[in-house]
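Quarterly update from the structural biology core.
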Amino acid sequence: MKRGTRHPADNMDKNHKWTIKEILEWTTAYFKTKGIRTARLDAEVLLGYALNVNRLHLYLNFEKPLLPSERMRFRELVRRRALREPVSLIIGKKEFWSLTLKVKRGVLIPRPDTETLVQTTLDIVSSLDKPKILEIGTGSGAVAIAIAHERPDAHVYANDLNPVALDLARENALNTKAHVLIFGCDMFSALKDGTKFDVICSNPPYIPDGVIETLDPEIDYEPMNALKGGPEGLDVITRIVAEAPAFLNRHGRIALEIDFDQAEKVSQLLKTAGLEVDRISRDLSGKPRVVIGRIQ
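Predicted structure, tokenized:
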């Protein structure tokens, strides 16, 4: 937007006593003109954040007028969302696995589909006492923290190359009281010979480079190195599959989040590395989401 140009959100009449109901309806309609598919939900979340109340409070107070200071604060949030900044970055937090995690620019925002990776890992270690689990590329720490939250007896380790991500993951672990050992390194480079895990899990970059530009504009606010996986989306996955077997216990498993159309190719990568394809977990929409390989 050119400097000096009025933003459409400034069209909220400052002299009108906007009620919660009216401002939600206006914002929803405005977001729809911007191509935002979750227009109503986003309007409610942002207004609740501006007023420091939950969404139920909004519905119970539909006819309550907003104060001028509240309208001003909300107008700025609307402005940012209209530019397609993700809601979670605007409010600084994201719900994942019923946990509230802090998010920030420069670190991948946790997605609901990645909860499939958490559940799959928990299923794998359900019969093990004090399992040892490593997450490669932890980002905000969402997966490792969720696993540690469900299995406080587990020894959970997580790494990342990004120093911003490491700081954020440690902060989230502290805030959620999750016992996770978080360290910086590339893949397995910091691990000593002989270090073994029951499960190595990862949500690696797996989007083909050419697909990135076709995604929603919100993607521009996220780190490309956490998304782009090379021409076929398999560059990082290939490295993990090649190196992981040396760090797995006998009958240990590797769990990898994938794009829904990569299951066959990733399965072949596992077989080439001498791993047996244990199973493929599907997300809530029924799409293949996690491929599990096992030491034979």
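The first strand starts at residue 93 and ends at 96.
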